[in-house]
Amino acid sequence: MTTLFQLYLRLLKGFIVFCLAGMVVLVFGNVVLRYAFNSGLTMSEEFSRWLFVWMTFVGAIVVLHENGHLGLDFIVNALPRPLRRLCLVLAHGLMVYATWLVLAGSWVLVSVNSNSYAPATGLPMSLLFGVGLVFGLSTAAILLWRIWLILTGRLDRITIIDEEAAALHQAGVK
């Protein structure tokens, strides 16, 4: 199961790269077309906006898995173990609730916009709002798995990744 999830995360990271590259090509290409040839792609702005939305939500999934979001882990980690576990379960429970709100709202938006189409690309608007479903299901799985690990005692602290501190530690600087 772990290797399947790692493959899923690798696929998400590749999709993020695809979205970023697509945005660069579409926006830069449209700028060149407008200034050099006095024309442009009508779908460029709309599709690059969609890629940005998808990249943001998919990136949030990856960052959640890697504990890269902002946090004050030193406060929770300074608490005694039972209180720390209680705070972690409570925090993850609140995050699951927020994820549920995103998931439910996205489901409504997908179903309402199933027969609506984007003006420039002609793509179904449900594709744009479908990212909330992908985000909601993925983050719910990550958060529920963490709650299970906390309740079974296999996880009792969350360490926020600090890339600068990790690089200094790796270089031997204290």
UniProtKB/TrEMBL annotation:
A GO molecular-function descriptor: transmembrane transporter activity
Keyword Repeat: no
GO annotations of cellular component type: plasma membrane
Keywords: Cell inner membrane, Cell membrane, Membrane, Transmembrane, Transmembrane helix, Transport
Residue spans crossing the bilayer: 12-35, 47-65, 86-107, 127-148
GO biological processes: C4-dicarboxylate transport
Cellular compartments annotated: Cell inner membrane
Domain of life: Bacteria
Family: Belongs to the TRAP transporter small permease family.
Identification of the protein by name: TRAP transporter small permease protein
